[in-house]
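Page 42, continued from yesterday. The earlier attempt failed because a stray header line got pasted into the input along with the sequence. Redoing it now with the clean sequence only.
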Amino acid sequence: MKRANPAVRELKNIGATVARQLHEIGIQTKDDLERVGAATAYCEMKQRHPEARTPLCYYLYSLEGALRDQHWDDIGDDVKKSLQNDVARFSGAS
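This time it went through. Structure tokens are written below.
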């Protein structure tokens, strides 16, 4: 039986490194991630770790997949494009 509000480490696609970086920005649970959203969480993680050169799929798509309980590559191209647009808007506002 799945918990109603699991810790981020328990979500699909989320490994130890991503979970640690989510914790660093105050995201501990699935509800926290839902409240912030995948694109915002990704941008905050990138701001905190600008040296990281990780592909979008490993963070951005994985975060969205975690919210949907799907493998990151199964979220669909339209969702991926929308997430990329959200990140571009967020980055442009900085």
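Notes: The helical segments are 16-24, 30-36, 38-48, 56-68, 77-93.
Reminder to self: strip header lines before submitting.
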